[in-house]
Model the fold of this input.
Amino acid sequence: MPVVKYIVKRLLVMIPVLLGISLAAFLLGHIAPGDPVDDALARIGVEFPTEEDRAEMRAKLGLDQSLPNQYLSWLSRVVRGDLGNSYYNNKDIAKEFRARFPITLKLSLSALFTAVLLGVGGGVLMAAFRGSWLDKLLRSISTLLLSIPGFWLALFLITVFAEQLHWLPTSGLDRGAASLVLPSLALAAANVGMTSRLVRGNVIAQLGEQYILVANAKGLPQRVVVLGHALRNSLVPIITMIGNYFGGILGGSTIIETIFAIPGMGSYVLSAIQNRDYPVIQGYVLITGATFVLINLAIDLLYIAADPKIRVGGGAQ
Done:
């Protein structure tokens, strides 16, 4: 089948991309400032290490080999699912990520749902009532959302809805879905503003096309014209933006997770950065990079489903 062949072809193309990501992740631990050997010695109480102490620790960490050998050794372990142990607490990094990835994924999906619901919905409303007071109000709100820093909005939401109104929890995941409401809003706010403006512009452009005039002449309800025709033919750029946004929030939820004390990958890697725990940072870069590549493959497949004119391997017809 053409779709299966297309997927296999894309997966083969991804191999050098993933190798490049792995190389960048590996080199990150070597070009970063500071010496992990001294940090590791300090953690076990060696405040004034000798050269012998450094050499012993360097060998223990596998840093006494050449860079190519270190990379190949690290890559062979990564392929087997072994990301090594943390310099800070000697815990298995892959096990930590397996426990934390679902939490970050849940937060990212919640933020994505919020962005799609409010962004696409708001954009359609602005396009359907363009020039009205509702359009002007929603455009002002979208501009405001684009202007507010995420961390400030997070603190504002905590102050109002958690501290003053006591509607939602301030942090953690103890209250299930309710615990994700505030972090999802804080994480999705800027994208809601951007998505709504993109949807508005694309839908308005489609409403001026000839096929819309024909649909109106046939007496189709305005709801069918806007949603069934204009919005559907605007989906490709919207899917691109939302897909890239989803890949971005998987790797960009660090501050929000920290503010709301969510034990996901973002808070874990932030702690690793503070402690110069380079293997954790390498694993994080590798996982988020690989996830972003797979999301781009999913976006390409959604193009085919959203626009029947797109043919696999053949472009638009």
About this structure: Residues 105-274 form a domain with the MetI-like fold fold (CATH 1.10.3720.10). The chain has two domains: 2-79, 105-274.
